Every structure is written in structure tokens, then in C-alpha cells.
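Entry 12.
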Amino acid sequence: MGVARILPAVVVLLAAVAFAQAAPTAPDLRDVMSARNHGMGGAFESLGYGAEVIVGNPAALSQYKRYQIEGNGGWDPGQGYGYGSIAVADSTSALAAGISYQFCTFGGEERRWAHTTSLALAYALAEFLHLGVTARYNVLVGASNTNSVTMNAGLVVKPASFLSVGFSGHNLIPVYNSDLPRYFVFSVSGLFLEQLTPAFDLWMDFNQPTARFDFRGGLEWLAAQSFPLRLGYQYDGITNKQYFGGGVGYFVEGSGIDLAYRHELGGGPGKLIALTLKLQL
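Predicted 3D structure (C-alpha cells):
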């Protein structure tokens, strides 16, 4: 009877250890984002300009009043990685809301196909304090399978009109799938002279015995009030990758197009091209 009781506990423990030590793939679901973000090294969580905040830090959704429709696509032929997404965000009322759908194929020989639907809500307690939450429904098929619901939550603080500081938690409801780990993001961004936007994100993964960090930084310069030029760098200590990114765009009154290229450093095969189309009303 003692062995019969102990054996199930041992099996559960071994399964938990195996999950905790599972090595993440790269690129993965964290790389599904807009072209603007890829051009800025993946630093975007406190910006709040695009509909990607629905799957990032949802608190940033209420920073700017607008109605926005956004479509994104990305392709990395060297790694067989691709994604597409569409999102609608409405922050014209006190309670901002947004919904998005993402499709992603990744994993190399251990191919996965992911479908993610997200619903985000955000509310500004004051002009300087924004709170948000996202419910996410995930369906993964292939080498990794899950049919699950999880959530993100975050806050954004604006100590000054030109500065935003954010903190968010992702996949806070355990999914027990290595493609959907829990992680946290500290972010900070600024807007100077209405033209220069620096941004920095620190992504933190505590699922291993030793914490792992992903450092992302980028800079955007808005030329002639319509042509953004972007550069960024990412040191991903979670998947042991480094990237350099760059991008350009054109927009009028919030609507326009963005194009970005992300190159993996160190001789890796990653060469990702991303495109975003956005309409702001």
C-alpha cells in the first residue's frame, strides 16, 4: 500500500521536473508581434500605440484614445517560422477593450500550429495609472498539444507625460505546456520632442532553477511626422539567441504600414520579415 501511494507522487514530480527543464524553441509564440516591435528589438510593452498590447501588457491599451484595426504577418524562411494576426482595439471610452486572433507555425522538425484568441480590458484609475487584464484561449496541435485558457495582467505608470513604466505577468494561469510558460516583463519607454521614442523591455523567466532574462531595446525616430525609422537589439538569454532589427514605416493620423527585418546574430539562420497594416479611426 505504501508503494502504491508513493508511486503516483513520484510520477507527478518527475513530470513536473521534465516540464520545468524543457528547452524552449526559437522563434516561438513570444515572437508574434507587429513589424514596429521587431524593428525596435522587440521592446514594446509600455508603448501602447498598437493593438499588440492586447497580447502584451494590456494596461497600455487605455493610454491613447483611438479605435484601431491592425493586421500583422511575419515569415522566417530559414526556420520555417510564420505567423499572422488580426486585432481590433477600442479605447475611446473609460473601459478600453480589444480582441485579437493569432495563428503561428513553428518548431522545426517538431512542428506546432498555434491558434490564440485574446480579449483584453484596461482602465485608467488616473491619468498616470493604468490597469489591464487579458484572457487568452490557446489551441496548439502537433508536437505540443494544449486546449487551454490562461491570462495576462499588467499595469502602466506614467510619472511624467513623456515617460511610461510598465510591469506585466503572462500565462498567469498554469497551462503546463512548455510553449506557454509563465514569465514577467518590466518595460520603460519615452517620447521626446514628439519625434524620438526609446524603449526597453526586460523579460524574466523563473521556470528554471536559474532565472533567465531577455533584454530588448530599440529606438524610433519620426521623420517629417510621417516616416518612422527604427533600430533595435535583443539579447535573449531564455533561448540563447541574439538579434538585430530595423524597420521603416509610413502613417497619416495613425493609419499606415510598417515593414521590419530581424537578423539573427552569431551565424544563426534567423532572417525574419514582418509587415503591419493598421487603420486608426
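Annotation: Residues 1-23 have pLDDT under 50 and may be disordered. The longest helix spans residues 2-20.
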